[in-house]
């Protein structure tokens, strides 16, 4: 049976189990129970999963909120855009070295500027202008690399308050289900051609 790997931050963690259920019987879906955090951590996490589980047919991943996060007392993003792109390129290289097809998911929008506590205990600052800047840079890179984009940003814009739950960053159950359905559809397309 074909194998799919899901990588990314807490947004991925909100829809990974739903994607697995939606694709049951079609492929094996793997993901880490740990938050993929920022892109350099996801790179490390991908390497561990490739080492432990071997080859995958499709890797679907997202990064963004942690990379653009300015967590006090720091005064700049964890990974400014150029560093973010550097690590996305390294993730792409590792996915390709693994022999897998890639799908990159954009960062979901936020309705207003704020701060949320992540399950790891970190404070994640968010601002939609940051999201737009990082998404545009990532989409440009994915176009250059001929990598499919799962535009979760555009999908979540359709919902009331962007399907955000009370913390302003994470999604409602309905938002996660919509993300999962869109991800599963794109994964099916890739698997059909893999």
TrEMBL record:
Which InterPro entries does the entry link to?
A: Ester_Hydrolysis_Enzymes, SGNH_hydro, SGNH_hydro_sf
One GO MF term on file is:
phosphatidylcholine lysophospholipase activity
Q: Where is the SGNH hydrolase-type esterase domain?
A: 80-178
Please provide an example of a Pfam family that matches this protein in its UniProt record: Lipase_GDSL_2
Report the superkingdom from the record.
Answer: Bacteria
In Swiss-Prot or TrEMBL terms, this protein is called SGNH hydrolase-type esterase domain-containing protein
């Amino acid at each position: 049976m074909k194998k799919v790997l899901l990588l990314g931050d807490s947004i991925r963690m909100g829809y990974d189990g739903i994607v697995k259920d939606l694709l049951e019987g079609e492929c094996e879906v793997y993901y880490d129970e740990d938050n993929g955090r920022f892109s350099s951590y996801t790179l490390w996490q991908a390497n561990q999963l490739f080492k432990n589980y071997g080859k995958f047919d499709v890797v679907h991943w997202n990064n963004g909120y942690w990379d653009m996060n300015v967590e006090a007392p720091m005064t700049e993003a964890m990974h400014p855009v150029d560093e973010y792109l550097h690590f996305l390129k390294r993730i792409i290289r590792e996915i390709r070295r693994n022999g897998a097809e890639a799908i990159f998911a954009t960062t979901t929008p936020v309705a207003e500027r704020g701060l949320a506590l992540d399950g790891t205990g970190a404070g994640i600052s968010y601002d939609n202008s940051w999201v737009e800047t990082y998404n545009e840079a990532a989409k440009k890179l994915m176009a250059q690399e001929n990598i499919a984009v799962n535009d979760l940003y555009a999908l979540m814009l359709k919902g009331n308050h962007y399907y955000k739950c009370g913390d302003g960053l994470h999604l409602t159950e309905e938002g996660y289900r919509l993300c999962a359905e869109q991800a599963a559809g794109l994964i099916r397309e890739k698997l059909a051609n893999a």
